[in-house]
Amino acid sequence: MTGQRSAVDRDRSLADGDDPTPPPTAATAFLGSPDGNAAYADAIDRARDVLLESFATAEGPYAGTDHGTLRDRLADLQVVPDDGSSIEDALETVADDVLADSVRVHDPGCVAHLHCPPTVPALAAELLLSGTNQSMDSFDQAPAASVLEERVVDACCDLFDYPTGADGVFTGGGTESNFLGLLLARDWYCERRFDRDVQTEGLGPEAASDLRLLCSDAAHFTAEQAAHHLGLGENAVVEVQTDGDRRIDLEALDSTLERLEADGRHPFAIVATAGTTNFGSIDPLAALADRAADRDLWLHVDAAYGGACAVSDRLRPKLEGIDRADSIAVDFHKLFYQPISCGAFLLRDGDRYRHLERNAAYLNPERDDAAGVPNLVSKSTRTTRRFDALKPFVTFNALGRTGVADCVEYVCELADAVADEIRADPALELCCDPELSAVVFRYRPGDESGPGSSTTAAVDRVNRAIRDELLADGEVILARTEVDGTAALKLTLLNPKTTLSDLRGVLEAVVDRGEALETDREVIDSA
């Protein structure tokens, strides 16, 4: 192989007592030496240029290329060639074959998912944490990073008015945070109710068959996913109907709890949602905290979306009662404008981490615990973790809490404004008043009875076709969902550079496409 010594040559050199010679690629492939540092600077400059050129030349939120075409084109790429060429060639390939067909989250027409444009300070932090490559499992791998993560977690606990003794850890996002909360809830409950240490003894027969957790029927699917991963099964999740505001119905919750207890089941946790995926609805957190306290249940709040309200003096009252939750999931890669991935799990009583802790002599020996060494592996379901806490730290220090709050408040105000536009358009229907920055609506096709009287089947076909065609044309990326069993569209507004004028253009595109589709019965009938 070009430029490399054979394994036989290396073995002979070592047998003769010679110092092994580093491979020639090492000089410029790694940081730490003048040559490597210079190569890094050149590579970062080139990558930056490629990215900015992509932003400057792109039109719309997506090129519209379908998945089959992408698979065919990328199938020709060499992933692990025998011999490399240059970083310039590799980045040119990325520019042509990856960036050109990537979703542009900074574009005003990208309004589908909880997928934010990241702040510039956070991108700068991403460069630093990737370059230093700290692993957050033990102090000796990430000294200052471990202590700074503790500081950032403490600040997050303060943000949600948690008391002294609260703790937490950074996670990959809401899925991991929700799982961690329900893992601790299950083990805490089994210890109290059955005097059983699940970590060492496993689930007893009562826990395996009779444990139940409750959430609204609008809660994120990760409640069911966590129940599966925890050995309880998805049937352990009891969904409670929502009220007219798409929040968990308290009367239905009370009757459900009474029924479960009468049947000999063991409710152990309530999962509240502060910002549902579809509507941004926020469950009545204070009332749920009362019910959890009355029955000695764990209250976990999935605030992956709505948790950002905590930075805003105006929006903060929406989270009233969250300080009483036993645990909270927060996503920084949504309304906190951080690059993926960046989340946090917060625990009101840090002592409850005892249900998760374990020690390994090579990583976090017990003598480190006694000395107060911050080996954060004991707080996480992961071992190796990135130094993601650096991103919000740099962002908050660059923009300030009020700077981030301005962005959060703006997109929520924008949601209210575009909802008014939808109400005023007879071709559109608003499905629910926005609570945060999600706006669910649909196009209302007409039929032989006149505008606004279309059948459910027609509504489904037209709205699905509108979304698919706008995506295929790369004009707008809308979210799709169902409301009461009927197809709907959704604007998920996270970009503080998006304007009402931009969104008027989106609505016009929806209406124009809907009207065009209604004239093409073949398209509608096959949608």
Automatic annotation (TrEMBL):
Q: Does the keyword Transmembrane helix apply?
A: no
InterPro entries registered for this protein in UniProt: Aromatic_deC (IPR010977), PyrdxlP-dep_de-COase (IPR002129), PyrdxlP-dep_Trfase (IPR015424), PyrdxlP-dep_Trfase_major (IPR015421), PyrdxlP-dep_Trfase_small (IPR015422), Pyridoxal-P_BS (IPR021115)
Keywords, A to Z, come to: Decarboxylase, Lyase, Pyridoxal phosphate
Q: Which cofactor does it need?
A: pyridoxal 5'-phosphate
Q: Name one GO molecular function term.
A: pyridoxal phosphate binding
| Modification sites for N6-(pyridoxal phosphate)lysine | 334
Q: Which family does it belong to?
A: Belongs to the group II decarboxylase family.
State what protein this is by name.
Pyridoxal-dependent decarboxylase
Species of provenance: Haloterrigena salina JCM 13891
